[in-house]
UniProtKB/TrEMBL annotation:
It is an enzyme of class 3 (hydrolase). Belongs to the sulfatase family. NCBIfam families: PRK13759.1. This is Arylsulfatase. PANTHER family: IDURONATE 2-SULFATASE. One of its GO terms (molecular function) is arylsulfatase activity. CDD domains: sulfatase_like. Gene3D superfamilies: Alkaline Phosphatase, subunit A (3.40.720.10). Its EC number is 3.1.6.1. Pfam families: Sulfatase (PF00884). Residues 4-367 form the Sulfatase N-terminal domain.
Amino acid sequence: MNPPNLLLITVDQMRFDCLSALGHPVVETPNLDAMTSKGVLFPQAYSAVPSCIPARAAIMTGMSQRSHGRVGYQDQVPWRYTHMLAGELAQAGYHTQCVGKMHVYPARNLCDFHNIVLHDGYLHHNRDKRDTPFAEHFDQVDDYMRWLRREAGTEADLTDLGLDCNASTVGRPWHLPEALHPTNWCVTESIDFLRRRDPSKPFFLWSSFVRPHSPLDPPQAYFDLYKDLELPVPPIGDWVDKEAAALAGGADPTSTFGRLPKRRLDRARAAYYGLITHLDDQIGRLLQALGEYGVLNDTLILFTSDHGELMGDHLAFRKSLPYEGSAKIPLILWDPGGRFGLAAGSRPDTVVELRDIMPTLLEAAGAPIPASVEGASLLGPARGEAGARRSYLHGEHAYGDRSNHFVTDGREKYIWFSQSGEEQFFDLTVDPAELVDRAGDPARADRVALWRERLVRELEGREEGYVMEGRLVAGREPRACLSHIL
């Protein structure tokens, strides 16, 4: 049997619960729902470092954050990894292509792909000249922008709508024809790869979308789907400082905390949901093209997001925090041709993470898995096979005074804020929205102690000095990157 083609579809900043297959009260995702019913959905999937750069490091290296070294968000740190997913597949005879967002440095670093067609979205460090070894201007590194200016016949720019790339609290419709939207462009370029690929080789295509990451700019028809609906009220935990949120007020559209006027929040959520349904339709377009090219049944498809979006949960926005809306992600594995014997419609109750993507695709390809890979293939659980799996996941994010660590098995979650020493503990089985912090509950003291000890083991020996004499130490300076990759 010939090796399968591999299609990795990633979206940016999509919450785990924004699938109608999971019972979301308003979001419509018919194509992803169909993939869920025909494939395998992993309901306990997390991003261990929930922001763009470290999430992609996990995908491309199969390593934990301790090994790939990116434990927060820091641009302009060169990527120098010996074993990356595309390179291992190329050595195994695959034709490899990435379309869309890479978010590596330098921006045109191939990361062992044969070719990349790039759109990273708005990145502050390449919007003006910087004195760095790879001084990059967006005109040099963004293929979508050059295409857009040819197609639109104008000096179109990413800032034309007046929306910041991190404005998670402001939404409005896309102003140009839908075919020019970056989501459509990503699919158009992915389909073009199907046309020009080497037909004598299996292919690995990574279709990497920038949306639903802000700016929240769905085409008008998709904004209209949600703008007049009564949207569900975001959860607000009993532990949230509501007075501070009222003072913050969300005055800055890029704010990460604050209470917004309901009208503004509803418009932002309508735009966010509209982007997700738009993505779903465009993913359907890509799947249709796979069928038209006669390769759908020979292709293993994995869909996921790099991290979530709080979108008002606990009066917070964007990502980087340890709560479910930020750290938990959708992850679907679908084998249209049935060659891997996946248990269609199943939902394995095992905690999984982005580092598991590389070994999954390498196993499917029959390629060797490098010793540096710390993830585990998802094919066994997707077939319903019993076997040793990780019992919990350690996640973290350097984030100033809200720098945090969390450990979870998808049923319980312990959180430690490394600067203040504050602890939180949630029983996700009865409180999936994290409404009640039980860290101070005497009846949960043993569970809190168990999870705290697990975090101590994870952080033992870390260069930041988070652990001394077997205890967590608050106030140590967080670092976005560990020294071995700088």
